[in-house]
């Protein structure tokens, strides 16, 4: 029992140290030598815990996403009104609280896995995006039911508009190393929510 | 003279064949073996025309951008009103007329070169983005001078908002292989131009 626990701790420590590196270099392209350097382990040590570099990279992606999701649900539960939940969600992502060293793991992975070169990563990213879209569409649908959001709004279209705008802002901000780009796009998005989604009082 | 011309033709043919591959795989990460396959040349043949794989990749990026810029200026010159130029520009990019196999070369390269691993590509991308921003800001500024665009609009902020929104849409569309995402974000952007930028008649 205690050996397995120690193994799990080591596994988690490896993932925590490798995650920012993988996010920066690419989940597929980060060199094993760099993973060895940041974890302080030899190849043998790494492969004790992961069958392959690919398995390690996917586990690191999962860990990052698990933590982002936890922040998303925490923020969600701080509000009971769907419109307030939507606004708080946009502010959470748009103010960079879920981004990390190397930028947005989703934007990075979307580009890295947009073709057939990395089907396992692509499946992970697709799954995360689908959950994100469904979450946002559900919040918007709840807002319509509760009369906070206009009934002629299409929840799916709003969900992809929010995601696309936030990811575009992330892309600009991480390229320029300036959060101002994401912040300005977030402001436009909040104005969009206020002017196009909010039901007339 | 004729030898040099033939050399230039071969060089251009290599770039034209390698460009979609580089855009899809990454300007840095595409394997030489794949470049050899699509061009039908051996390593020696390639290195006759380019000092290195990096030089070939940068030249391919330049060629792609040169052709996109030509489309941008062509579209610009079809209109004399700045507001019409802005709308035509958004439609040109937003309807995917400048994207290519493997998605948007700018979005791809922004992610690929957002850190210190590829300074030469990063400098190229930065230069293209600056030209794009300046172009859009100038069109908006002209629109203000001519009274077509509201005087309280900030041209730089509009420029980055347009670029960020289009790139976010590109990212979604190329990931899902569905142009609908970019088209919907383009529609929102055109609504933004109409409602937030257009000067009251």
Please give a structural write-up:
The structure is a homodimer of 201-residue chains. By secondary structure, the first copy, chain A, is mostly helical. Chain A has helices at 2-25, 32-39, 43-49, 53-77, 82-94, 105-112, 119-145, 155-176, 180-197. Chain A has nine helices and no strands. The first copy, chain A, is elongated, with a radius of gyration of 19 Å. In chain A, helix 5 packs antiparallel against helix 9 and helix 7 packs across helix 8 (155-176). Helices cover 76% and strands 0% of the residues of chain A. The interface between A and B is large, with 37 and 37 residues.
The helix-and-strand class of chain A reads: mainly alpha
CA(first)-CA(last) distance of chain A: 60 Å
Please summarize the sheet with the most strands of chain A: none
Number of strands of chain A: 0
Please name the two chains that share the biggest interface, counting residues whose Cβ lies under 8 Å from a Cβ on the partner chain.
A-B, 37 and 37 residues
Order of helices and strands of chain A: HHHHHHHHH
Oligomer: homodimer
The shape of chain A, in one word, is elongated
Q: Strand fraction band of chain A?
A: under 5%
Helix content of chain A: over 70%
As a whole number of angstroms, the C-alpha radius of gyration of chain A is 19 Å
Tally the helices of chain A: what do you get?
9
- Average pLDDT value of chain A? 91
Unreliable spans of chain A are none
